[in-house]
Specification:
The complex is a heterodimer of chains A (114) and B (116).
Chain A: E1 3-5, E2 10-14, E3 19-21, E4 24-26, E5 33-38, E6 44-50, E7 56-58, E8 64-68, E9 73-78, E10 87-94, E11 102-104, E12 108-113
Parallel strand pairs in A: 2-12
Antiparallel strand pairs in A: 1-4, 3-9, 5-6, 5-10, 7-8, 8-9, 10-11, 10-12
Chain B: E1 4-7, E2 10-13, E3 19-25, E4 32-38, E5 44-51, E6 57-58, E7 67-73, E8 76-81, E9 90-97, E10 105-107, E11 111-115
Parallel strand pairs in B: 2-11
Antiparallel strand pairs in B: 1-3, 3-8, 4-5, 4-9, 5-6, 7-8, 9-10, 9-11
Classes of the chains: A mainly beta (114), B mainly beta (116).
């Protein structure tokens, strides 16, 4: 069955430190992959997406993600975290059935220490 | 581009009343929209797929008579929670896929529903 897993429920980093949020997928083929961010009480904002091609994807707000087929991973990274990055982050994969539906990971809550 | 709005942002209603939530794609056409429900500190739960000009497709366990969905135009989908009860209180989020787009969902800001 298709699935997306975010192993870390929450992560705490110091402001200015680097960040990596993990995402693993289980699909028969390479899915479309997305990272979204959700601030408290808000909807989801698209950070970046991977469909094909270059495996290092640049997104908004200084985020990037790298697709690694050998590890079935699509980890999100940022070299220097800002306090405003504190939020919930969701990794998602597109279903391989042309339905446009997404399979969401359970989310990772990022806390930023001043 | 790719802005999705929801109205209202929050609503409080009495038990037994119906509430309508609107989802609009402001700068693109969306043949397909989705409605999600999110419980506190949880991921999103897909409720239904809304397709312009046709009946919505509901996920298993979602009551279609309880959650009425209408997608009357390429920029508007509505979710009506009928005869709302306190257990329907939740955060409802819609998303839209650009017509001809590649499976990228753009999300609205969400609607907080509280049923007293």
């Amino acid at each position: 069955a298709q699935s997306v897993t975010q192993p870390d429920i929450h992560i705490t980093v110091s402001e200015g430190a680097s960040l990596e949020l993990r995402c693993n997928y289980s699909y028969g083929a390479t899915p479309y992959l997305f990272w979204y961010v959700q601030s408290p009480g808000q909807g989801l904002q698209l950070l970046l997406k991977y469909f094909s091609g270059d495996t290092l994807v640049q997104g908004i707000k200084g985020f990037e993600a790298e697709f690694k087929r050998s590890q079935s991973s699509f980890n999100l990274r940022k070299p220097s975290v800002h306090w405003s990055d504190a939020a919930e982050y969701f990794c998602a994969g597109g279903r391989m059935d042309s339905s446009y539906k997404l399979i969401f990971g359970s989310g990772t809550r990022l806390l930023v220490r001043p | 581009g790719a802005v999705v709005s929801q109205h209202p942002s929050r609503v409080i209603c009495k038990s037994g009343t119906s509430v309508k939530i609107e989802c609009r794609s402001l700068d693109f056409q969306a043949t397909t929209m989705f409605w999600y429900r999110q419980f506190p500190k949880k991921s999103l739960m897909l409720m239904a797929t809304s397709n312009e000009g046709s009946k919505a497709t509901y996920e298993q366990g979602v009551e279609k008579d309880k959650f009425l969905i209408n997608h009357a135009s390429l920029t508007l989908s509505t979710l009506t929670v009928t005869s709302a009860h306190p257990e329907d209180s939740s955060f409802y989020i819609c998303s839209a896929v650009r017509t001809g787009g590649k499976e990228t969902q753009y999300f609205g800001p969400g609607t907080r529903l509280l049923v007293l």
